[in-house]
Every structure is written in C-alpha cells, then in structure tokens.
Amino acid sequence: MSKRDLKKYLSELSKTQLEGQILELYEKFSPIKIYYDFVFNPKEDTLLKECKLKISNEYFPQRISGKKPRKPKMRRSIAQKYIKHFMLLGVDPFIIGDVMLYSIEIAQTFSAEKVVKPELFYKSMLNSFEQAVKFMIANGIITEFKSRLSAINNEAIRQKWFNHHEYDAIMERLE
Fold this sequence. Notes:
The chain is mainly alpha-helical.
C-alpha cells in the first residue's frame, strides 16, 4: 500500500474508527507503544542515564551480588543501537551528540587502563568519531561539542592510537 492509498483510506474512516485502529496498533506492536510512550512522556534524562550505564557496562562491567564481574565486551554496537533508537524517537540532537561522544570517551578511558590489541577497536572508534562529526554538522551543533571532539582527538594522540592522524585530519577540516 502506498502512502497516498493509506491517506485516502484513513480519510474515509470516522474519528472513532481511527481511534480504534490506533489503539489496536498500540496494543499489538511494541515499537508503536514505545513511540507513543516517548511522545507523551519524553523522559530524555532517564533514557540518557540508562543508555550511558549500558555503554559503560560494556567496558567496565558491574559486580552482581558478590560475583566476579564479567570480562569487558567492548561492543560498539550497544551504543549504535541506542543512537539509532534515539534518532527514531526524535530525541534532542544534543542528547544524541552527547551519547555519540560518550561512547568514544568511555572506550578511551578503558584503553588508557588496559591495552587493546585488536585493530578493529581503533577503526570502529574512528568510525564513531566520523559519524558523530557528520551528525553534529548536519544538526548545526558542532560548535557546542568542539571541545569534547578536540579532547577525544588529543587522547587518541596521547594513547598513540595507530590511526590518530585520521582524527587530526578530521579536526583540521573542522577548523
């Protein structure tokens, strides 16, 4: 069904029928429920705290009831899922930008404490950095995050990441 056909179908429904269909969709499909729950009660600060906790647990797992903490998984995909979810919900771009940079910053904190050998880790952090810069430029918020971007670049240099020159190149293009 095309968007035009859908509009035509919806225009033919009465208000009561339309309300009934929306309620049915809300009950049947969890993405719709999540969307409406967010639209009518956008607890962005709670979402942000939960997100940052999950991301930090990827690098610094918490002890659970006296057990030895699990090994860090360092999955970039966890942050990427939250970023995508936030974009779908229409969360404020400043919050999305904050999450994008937080995921890199926590990874750098981890790599400062423990040696990370796989090259893929460094490449994926660079991808995250590039995506963050592009997102911030597209949303006109780059100046508000420039100091954090610069700090990430400086930390990549300080830790001697093999691809730190690419961070430098990105920062030079922003100047």
